[in-house]
Structure formats: C-alpha cells, structure tokens
Amino acid sequence: MGLLVLSGISILCSLFIGSSTLTASQVLNVLMGNGSTLEQTLIFELRLPRALVAFCTGAMLSIAGVLMQVLLRNPLADPYVLGVSSGASFAALISMLLGFSAMFIVGGAFSGALLSIFLVFIFANGKGGWTINRLLLAGVVLAAGWVSLISFLLVISPPDKVQGMLFWLMGDLSYDRPLLPGLIILIIGFLLTIPLCPKLNVLIWGEKQASSLGINTKRLRLSIFLLSSLLTAGAVSLAGGIGFVGLVVPHFVRLFVGNEHRILVPASALAGAILLILADIVARSAFAPVQIPVGVITAFIGVPLFLILLRRST
Amino acid sequence: MSFKINQLSLHIGEITICKDLNINIEPGEFWAVLGVNGVGKSTLLHHMINVDDAISDEIIIDDRSLSDYKHHRKHLAKKTGILLQEYEYNFPCTVLDAALIGRHPYLSEWQWESLEDLNITENALKRTDLIDLKDRLTNTLSGGEKRRLNLATLITQDPDYLLLDEPTNHLDLSAQIKILNFLKQHIQDNNKAGFMVIHDANLANRYCDNVLMLYGNGEWASGSTKEMINTNNLERLYNCPIQSLSNDSQTVFIAG
Hints:
The structure holds two protein chains of two kinds.
Chain A (H helix, E strand, L loop, with lengths): L1 H15 L7 H8 L5 H35 L12 H14 L4 H23 L7 H25 L2 H12 L8 H15 L3 H7 L3 H6 L4 H23 L5 H13 L3 H25 L8 H19 L2
Chain B lengths: L2 E10 L2 E11 L4 E5 L6 H9 L9 E3 L2 E2 L7 H7 E4 L11 H6 L14 H13 L15 H15 L3 E5 L7 H17 L3 E5 L3 H7 L2 E7 L2 E6 H4 L2 H8 L3 E5 L4 E5 L1
Parallel strand pairs in B: 3-8, 3-9, 6-7, 7-8
Antiparallel strand pairs in B: 1-2, 1-4, 4-5, 9-10, 11-12
Helix pairs in contact in B: 4-5
C-alpha cells in the first residue's frame, strides 16, 4: 500500500522536476487544466509519458527478475541472464543502423528478443528435457554470441550513429517511446503472474517438492520462462538495456517482505517502477541540458543502496 | 483403500531397479525399503509419486492408477506425500511459511490460507517440536531442525501414504529414535501408511511391519519384518558377512 502511494508521489515528482525550469505553481496550474500551450506540451507530452514509460519498464524488469530468480532457483539471477536483452539489443542496433524510426526500433528489439527466447528454448530442450543448468548454459552462451555481434555492429557503424547506439545499450528513456505496447505487456504479464504466485512459493523448495504437492512442474517452468522473457522483451524494447533493476529490486524487496510471492510480485513491480522514475528524474535534470542514460543512474543509486542493505541484513 | 504396485518393472539407464514388483501397502502399515547405495531406492520412491511421466498404470492408489491422477494432481497430493532426501534453501523464509506450503493441495488458485490452514500448520510444528522456532528463518536452522521442518511440511500436507526417503538422515541417535517413534505413532493413530527408505536394518527391524529388499539386477523380495530380516537375507542384500547379537528382548545385526 505504501508503495502504491510512493509510486504516485514519484510520478508527480517527475512532473515537477525537469531541465526547463517550471515553478511548482506553473505545474499545478497546468494540472488544473490551465497554463500556456508550451507548459501543457511540456507536462502532458514530454514529462508524463516519459514517467509512465519509466513506470512500465521498471515494473516489467522487476517482475521478470522475480520470475527468473525462481526459475533458476538463484536469488542472484537477473532477467538478462538468458540473453533475451542481448538479442533485443542486436536487433535494435540493426534497426538504428538502417535509420529506422523509433517505432521500428522498438518493434525490431521485440522481435530480436522473441528470436532469442525461441533459440534458448530450443537448445535448452535437448535430450531428456531441460534442466536448470542446460537452460542457463544455453542462455549464457547465446548472450555471448549476441554480444559479439553487437560489438561487430558498433565497430562497423558510422560514428554519428554510435552515440545513439551506446545510449540504447546502456538503457535510455530520452527519445519518443510508444507507451501503449509496453503498458499492455505489463498488464498482461502482471495478470498472468499473479495466479502463479502460490506455486512459486512451493517451487523455491525444488521441483520434486513442487511436484509432490500437486504442481505440474513442466508446465509451471515453461510459464515462468515465457512470462519472464516476454516482460524482459517488453522492457528492453521500450528502454534498452537498463541494468540492475531486475536484479536488485526483487532481491531488495525480498529482504523486507520475505518470499511470499503474492506480496513480493506486486511490491517488486511498484518498487522497480519507483526506482526507475526517480532515476530518470536524475538522468534528465542532474546535468541538464545534457541527458545521461538512465541505466547509468540506476546503477549509481542502486549499487550503494544495495551494498548498505547487504551489510545490514543478517 | 490401499497403495498397490502391480507388476512394475523400472529401469534407469542400464540399471534395472525392479522386475515385476508386486507389493500392497495397507493403511496402518509401516514399510521399510532396504538395499545398497545406488540400487534405485530413491528412484522407486520418486516414481511412486511422479506424475510427470504419467505412464504408470502399474501403480494403483486407492483403486485408480497413477496415470488417472494426471489431471488431478492436487487430489493425488492429498493421498500421497514424500519426505525427500534434499531440499533447496536458496530463498530463506520463516519456518511457519515454509511448513505452510504443505497446504497447497487444499487451496484453489485464488485462495489464501485460512485460519484453519494456519492452525493445522502450527499443530504440525508443535508435534515436531518446532513451534518455538516458527519465526526463525530457514537458512539459520541446523541439519536436524531442517529435517524436522521437512517432516512438519509433510504432516501439514497430511497425505494418507507417506513416502519417506531416509528420514533419519542428518540426525543424531536420540533424534533418530524420536522421529521414528513419531512416524510410527502417526501411522498407527491416524491409520496412515508409511513406506520408508532406510539404511539401518536394525531400525527397520525395530519399527517396521514389512520390508521390501532390493537386491539389484531387478531382484527383490518382500514380506513381514520377521521373515525378512535375518542374517542370510542381509548378507545377500549387502554382500558382506553379517553377525547377529541377541538379548532377551531384541536381536541386532552388525556388519563384518
């Protein structure tokens, strides 16, 4: 509940703070439906959509992180470990190189992510079904393959495009993003994850235990894999490779609410959304008018916060 | 009402665990499964609840074969439960929350645990002497406490047939006796049945009514403990000389 209020507050904050100086009263004026056209454009067409994109991305990454951690039964797994983001990045960079518009870059990234998910799934499903190790190996090796292709692209790309590509790789919310597809993926992903939560509570004890308590473990792990991959694909397509959120937020929230996934999943989603909105405020206003990739800021905020918590936890 | 294994032949890789295995586990009975390491005792146990393969028409639980339970997994989980040898402890939670997962088969998709589920779980913790630790995190438990937590989860699940994979693992002598007394009592008082893999033939002799011996190469024998546990059978089973020592009340067997 507290998190819900906090996420509301952080969206509001994001409306008030920005690189062009609007006073608080000006913003309030716009929210009341008044204000000049310029001010209205600034709030409703720049700051609000950007805050909402940050909200979606943070929430998707965090839910994907929770799911991936349970799937691999490792609290240090993150949504990128199986190479979904690298596949997306490669496709996005190709779209950028060919000079496509933002919409096509997002679409390209999503197709790249889907291709990567498909490949991991095929290779992990070798003889005798899949095991955690085989899944992890298939994902990590494919990710390495994508990364080498990405390096290749960066080397052969004209210098004027490399800056944009690097921003994308680091995770960036600065250019115009189509919000609606992200929002739809988030809502669908969230609604499909919630009924899985009681099963996740059992699965953390191992597949045999889950199976003996009446869970169809094959179907469950396939659902987890697909859901977490789709959410990651959605997040990466929307905002590039924002690191750290999917690893740290779920871990961080576990420290507070424990491993009851019916609480953990919504709480992580909100916490991730808040972190990313706040990080984005910093990214676009700290060194204004220069914008910093938001992925850099999430690490700046996240790393010390996480290390402090790690020391305090028993 | 019984747990029947009917003409079951089970292999893993090159190893034949059993050939044409026939046993009938009745409520109130406590079975021991004996055999050397690697003979396939645990695999047999897993097979007895493993609905993923769902090809087992040879395993019949309360007049329905295991494959019939394929789409009624939760129903099956109310009938049979297992105490595994090992569990994963990567995600610490409180002892109470850990044992509460035993209620999973009783809850529908959207249902939260009721006060009754909580009472059942707390009762299981009381019976396994864990109630004082109910708010402790699972990663801070000792080996013996973890074993009792695994047992408490099984008691919370409350199946009719309890498959037990080395319940005395990690336990000191007095704790071994305690857990076996508990299981024996639980089985007798509630008309449950137990099917336990154990390496200590003397404990099997002392607590169990029936014994299944897996000799390797698919050969097996079963019968009452009195018929089964003797020097000859144990020598064949463990492939080493066995001596028996007796006093007025009991006989113990030692290797060598």
